[in-house]
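Entry 14: structure prediction run for SHS2 domain-containing protein. Input pasted below.
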Amino acid sequence: MFNFLNFSAFGLDISDRLIKVAQFIQNRNQLNLFTFGSHEVPPGIINKGEIEKAEELAEIIKKTLAETQPYPIKSKYAVCCLPESKCFIRLVKLPQMNPSEIAEAAGWEAEEQFPLKKEEMYLDWQILKPIEESDLKRQTKEESKKSSSTDILLVAASKNSVDSYLATFDKAGLVPVVLEPESIAIIRSLINQKKNLGAVMIIDLGQERTGFIIYKEPAIKFTSDIPISGNLLTKAVAKEFKVSFKEAEKIKIDCGLNKTKKNGRVIKAILPYLSQLAKKIDQSLAYYYSEHFDSLDKSRAVSKIILCGGGANLKGLSVFLSLQLKREVEIGNPCINFIKPQLKKLPSISHSKSLAYVTAFGLALRGIQNY
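Run finished. Output tokens:
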């Protein structure tokens, strides 16, 4: 039996045009999706990650929580993401020192690395796991000298941005137990931590933008985003067929990149944007290799590219990108770190739909892990 009184914190993913929420529940040794849902955010409430109408957003959040299926979310504790554009992540090396010294050094490094003054940011940092003994045995003398340093993951966010989100959550009656960058939640959702995949690149194709993440255990190495998005592709289809946005979305979903459908007009309309997407991916990989790749350490080479976000459902996209980039490209599995529900009382979710809930699932997983 489920203990429905022992609720975890839920995941709350807020973007400019959509709110998505999810909550997990622990059933003995199995993790199950308990409930989930979404709600559109009208234009003008959030603009490029900045909350402009907190009262209205708070009401939408409350409505979303009340309407999740099959159960409403009653917990007031939320794990929330911050817009990637308002966050800064860097991996830095510090000489080995005691924890109190690291805290001070992290502050100085943050001011050097991030475009904010110390008093303008909230800063957190984490010491990454030490080198394993097996790794030490393989080190050269030069590498051994480098291992005397400590790897620190710095994460900072604008105080103005964070404070606006906190004020909105307060109006919605929520207690945010964790605030974290979207990219960290995505990694938690898509990467099976029991398998060492080496370095991977994640392409998150959203409604309003596409995010790039390069991750190599145990830390994110690179993030960026571009304005190419699912909505942009739909608008291109709408222009080509002279139809409404809603009708264009249906055409895009039905045809995908199939040249035989609609006389190839869909792929003709969106191909310039997809070619630009492939070019930006290549540029991001080139930058990563210039900054992080060591020819002696093959594990730093990106082994595969993983697609997620609602835009990943575009038929033929993974094959197109694989041919363009000459790399393995696959569609991610947001359910990889929890067991799909077997009982009729728990909601099931299709793989295509789950791709849009990657961030919400990652946040909810943090909630079930006691933060």
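Notes: Confidence is low (pLDDT under 50) at residues 1-6, 131-146. Will compare against the previous run tomorrow.
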